[in-house]
Known about the structure:
Blueprint: E1 2-8, H1 15-19, H2 21-28, E2 32-38, E3 51-53, E4 61-63, H3 65-78, E5 85-95, H4 98-104, E6 109-114, E7 119-120, E8 130-133, H5 143-154, E9 187-188, E10 191-192, H6 202-220, H7 222-225, H8 232-245
Helix pairs in contact: 6-8
Amino acid sequence: MMKIDILTLFPEMFQGPLNESIIGKAQSNGIVDFDLINFRDFSENKHHQVDDTTYGGGAGMLLMPQPIFDAMDYVTQKSAGDRGHVILLDPAGKRFSQQDAVNLSHQQHLIFICGHYEGYDERIKTLVDEEYSIGDYVLTGGELGAMVMLDAVIRLLPGVLGNDESSVDESFTNGLLEYPQYTRPANFRGMQVPEVLTNGNHQLIDEWRQKESLRKTYQRRPDLLKKISLSAHQQKLLKDIKRNYNNEPNE
């Protein structure tokens, strides 16, 4: 079972996402266990304040170190000394990717720190193993980013998806976008399923899927092709795709 602790000022935000759909089933089946921790409860301030103005001046308020350090001490104590793998949601963090989801899915204990306000006291980052952002934009807090990451990670855990092969062929898993997929009926309002998918020839189907995956990636995310190593056969398929896409004559 993967243990996940989430340090947040708004634990209610997670109630829906963590109890519905795939994540809800994973929790019901004992594959993952969540603990939502409101670090405001650990504030030593009589008003339960968790933020303060910045030294040196500047706009906005920063999260103070004390409540989060004490919340982390609590997590470590209740986990019998297991500190876990600590993730900080931060706009300046590394861009979260599918490979990061795969890497995190191998952890036994994840701890997410969701910030709010202008940012964090820098000393909080001494608690952290990795800092992540889900994109080049700023959200009100780290909760939504944590939900996105949790969904991406949990669906990779063994037994979560009905067919464990489902996650293997998905977009970004092998560095490419996923090929088009179809279901019944074969003809819907004049739109026909490609014949190759209905003839039962799995070798031809695999060839078609490889080519369509490369085609979609070339058309929509050509930057991804620079990051992966293609086989000789894939390179040949891609060459054909580029030739047809640019209306070049066959050699």
